[in-house]
């Protein structure tokens, strides 16, 4: 997988791409990330990549010509790459999108700045618009890093164990179950005995139930979007009945 990131500030991406799992994956050539400065395709003495908006208003708007030059140059190297615009107006990024996009032959991530892009960039050059949440950042670079990190986890060879991605929160529509490691007891809190039992069926049942409990408590909206087994539904009904019981004493 090749990521081409088009930005006015490529230095923002330098350090995160050198560290931890992403840095190791790039070094091992499991993926590649190329950053491109949009100003390299700007014209004039000052390499202007933005201008005032037609109709008036605050801020500056990114010009279409430099962006078009950058996108088309990236496309020449990877013609089948999908062009993704990072914008608060896009579809909110989900785990399913990370899995889907990991199957693409390449991604061109377009990072905005200022008041955003000339609308003709959106209608002419872009395949998909993505938002990382209902808030506004100073630029799309952090969003691009989030996409790269989330997508990379589903590319073979990036994680030491592919099972790590398969059990992440949201991978099956629910939040992940609690995790424990040594020591067995810490500040009066003990690891649940079932995890030391060696009974894999019991462990799997406990983990599934913990997923349901945690999702119900923190993100109940997700329960309406996931396919639940008969056992899942029975367990949730039992939780509801427990909530309805009057306090004892």
Strand segment tally: 9
For the record, the CATH class of the largest domain is: Alpha Beta
**Major beta sheet summary:** 5 strands, parallel
Total helices: the number is: 8
Uncertain regions spanning at least 5 consecutive residues = none
Shape: elongated
Give the gist of this structure.
With 249 residues, this protein is of the alpha/beta class. It has helices at 20-27, 64-77, 95-101, 119-125, 141-152, 163-166, 200-218, 230-244; strands at 2-7, 32-37, 50-51, 61-62, 82-92, 106-111, 128-131, 185-186, 189-190.
Structure, described:
By secondary structure, the chain is an alpha/beta fold. The protein folds into 2 domains: 2-152, Alpha/beta knot (3-Layer(aba) Sandwich), CATH 3.40.1280.10; 185-244, tRNA(m1g37)methyltransferase, domain 2 (Trp Operon Repressor, Chain A). Helices cover 35% and strands 16% of the residues. The chain has a 5-stranded parallel sheet, with helices on both faces. A two-stranded antiparallel ribbon has the order 3-4. It has a two-stranded antiparallel sheet with strand order 8-9. Helix 2 runs parallel beside helix 4 and helix 3 (95-101) crosses helix 5. The longest helix is centred in the last third of the chain and has 19 residues, at 200-218.
What does the secondary structure layout of this molecule look like, with pairings?
Layout (H helix, E strand, L loop, with lengths): L1 E6 L12 H8 L4 E6 L12 E2 L9 E2 L1 H14 L4 E11 L2 H7 L4 E6 L7 H7 L2 E4 L9 H12 L10 H4 L18 E2 L2 E2 L9 H19 L11 H15 L5
Parallel strand pairs: 1-2, 1-6, 5-6, 5-7
Antiparallel strand pairs: 3-4, 8-9
Helix pairs in contact: 2-4, 3-5, 7-8
């Amino acid at each position: 997988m090749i990521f081409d990131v088009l930005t006015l500030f490529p230095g923002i991406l330098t350090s995160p791409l050198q560290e931890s799992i992403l840095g190791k994956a790039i070094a091992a050539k499991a993926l590649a990330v190329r950053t491109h400065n949009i100003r390299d395709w700007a014209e004039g003495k000052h390499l202007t990549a933005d201008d005032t908006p037609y109709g008036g208003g605050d801020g500056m708007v990114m010009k279409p010509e430099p962006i078009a030059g950058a996108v088309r140059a990236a496309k020449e190297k990877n013609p089948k790459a999908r062009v993704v615009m990072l914008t608060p107006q896009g579809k909110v990024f989900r785990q399913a999108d990370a899995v889907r996009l990991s199957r693409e032959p390449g991604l061109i991530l377009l990072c905005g700045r200022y008041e955003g892009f000339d609308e003709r960039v959106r209608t002419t050059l872009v395949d998909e618009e993505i938002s990382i949440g209902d808030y506004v950042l100073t630029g799309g670079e952090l969003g691009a890093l989030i996409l790269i990190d989330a997508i990379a986890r589903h590319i073979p060879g990036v994680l030491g164990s592919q099972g790590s991605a398969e059990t992440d929160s949201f991978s099956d529509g629910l939040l992940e179950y609690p995790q424990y490691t040594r020591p067995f007891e810490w500040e009066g809190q003990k690891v649940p005995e079932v995890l030391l039992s060696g009974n894999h069926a019991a462990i799997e049942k406990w983990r599934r139930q913990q997923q349901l409990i945690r999702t119900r408590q923190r993100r109940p909206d997700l329960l309406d979007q996931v396919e639940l087994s008969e056992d899942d539904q029975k367990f949730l009904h039992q939780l509801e009945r427990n909530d309805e019981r009057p306090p004892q004493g």
